[in-house]
Amino acid sequence: MSTIIPPPRPNRPVYLDNQATTRCDPRVLAVMLPWFSEHYGNPHSVEHVMGTEAESAAEEARGHVAALIGAEAREVVFTSGATESNNIAIKGAARHALRSGSDRRRVITVATEHKCVLESVADLQQEGFEAIFLQVRSDGLLDPDVLRDALVVPTLLVSVMTVNNEIGVVQDIPTLAAIAKAAGALFHTDAAQGVGKVPIDVTAWKVDLLSLSGHKIYGPKGVGALYVRRRPRVRLVPLFSGGGQERGLRSGTLPAPLAIGLGEACRLALAEMAEEATRIAALRARLLDRLHTALPEVRVNANMEARIPGNLNLTFPAVTAAELMARVPDLCVSTGSACSSAEIEPSYVLSALGLPPEEAARSLRIGIGRFTSPADIDFAANALAAAHAGMPTPAVGALPGAFPGA
Fold first, then answer.
1. N or C end of the chain: which has fewer CB within 10 A?
2. What is the per-residue pLDDT across 316-325, written as a single tens digit (0 to 9) for each?
3. pLDDT at residue 344, rounded to an integer
């Protein structure tokens, strides 16, 4: 083991939790601001110029969202985020099938999905549907044959996330969607962690429904979108009753500034995704190399190849994740899903991979993003190694690195 040098303490936290949320890109914020103050018309008030200006800007944003995922603009429905999108997709499809007289009652998902998908599918059991939760392999990926076997029973809907929010693995959505479609089932994917990080083409993939969220791609919190295929048309029962906005699927006044911010975030992601992925992958390799040098027994959880560039989920050899984070308060990482952070039991995702509770308790999720610098990476590696060795972090020193482009 190499000599560990305690890192200097930064004058602001080093943020490596980009799967939980991302910093709103300053370019996105600049585009949004005028729509809060100067151009504040209701996009549904098309009788006057301020309303039509807001409507036009929101529709342009809808086009940017559609372009990022290979859809038509009219297939994009604005929502409050991926949680709402997932609920509309899963419950809306099931309830429409029930109302239309379909005898299909099976809904299939995966045990490692985000809680909002797992709970949505579980909720449907109270309405007479059969919920199936498929297990993944130890690498975090769903075996296509497992899905085929589950589809022997006529199935209404299959929901498999594009990228896992804890372990970062990328499922083979085109293959899984094709299997589901061949069995006559609708296919939905929660792509909140995949959009803007891996190329997505809903047309080529033949998915029926796709969910995304603004704050995962350097956009604002409180806005997301649901892709709903037009041909062949996918029909959903809305969750909300109201004025019929968003083609009747999501009533309520459209938050124009947020929608415009989401559109700009998608536009930037489409333009910069390839270059950004290369840079972030290099930073991840730098971090992993430094950690393995200091702590050779650190282990990466789940598949390393089929993985977004910015994710690492690591099990440390001897110290719990909670202890590590307590020893390095200036490093922002997490033990798993931010939506489950109040829970003290081991991550259900890591448990599904076969990790025993004591190993899951020693596991950290690290999320590298657009505004991560090489100096941030070096601080994180040194700080985690020092914390694992029980060495204190000095309270002096300057911030390592600055936000690029800030």
1. C
2. 999 999 999 9
3. 56
Statement to judge: residues 227 and 345 lie in one domain: no
- Structural contact between residues 283 and 272, judged by C-beta atoms closer than 8 angstroms: no
- Claim to verify: residue 90 and residue 225 sit in the same structural domain: yes
Query: Could you tell me if 168 and 313 lie in one domain?
Result: no
Residue 31 belongs to some domain of the structure: yes
Do both 166 and 89 map to the same domain?
yes
Structural domain that includes position 127: 26-268
Average pLDDT over residues 259-264: 98
DSSP code string of 66-129: HHHHT--GGGEEEES-HHHHHHHHHHHHHHHHHHTT----EEEEETTS-HHHHHHHHHHGGGTP
DSSP letter string over 331-379? EE-BSS-GGGTT--SPPHHHHHTT--HHHHTTEEEEE--TT--HHHHHH
Please provide the average confidence, as pLDDT, over all residues in the chain.
Answer: 93
Measured CA to CA, the distance from residue 368 to residue 270 in angstroms comes to 18
Q: Is 403 exposed, middle or buried (0-12, 13-18, 19+ CB in 10 A)?
A: middle
Q: Is the pLDDT of residue 398 over 70?
A: no
Do 298 and 252 reside in the same domain of the chain? no
Residue 148: strand pairing partners: none
Strand (E) or helix (H) holding 311: strand 311-315
- The CATH number that applies at residue 364 is 3.90.1150.10
- Looking at the predicted structure, is the pLDDT value of residue 339 above 70? no
Could you say which of 24, 266, 332, 339 is catalytic?
Answer: 339
- Residue 108 backbone dihedrals phi, psi, to 5 degrees: -110, 135
Banded pLDDT at 391 (limits 50, 70, 90): confident
Pick from 342, 326, 325, 347: which is nearest to 334 by CA? Answer: 325
> Quick check: is 339 catalytic?
yes
Are residues 223 and 315 located together in one domain of the fold?
no
CA angle 389, 390, 394 (to 5 degrees): 110
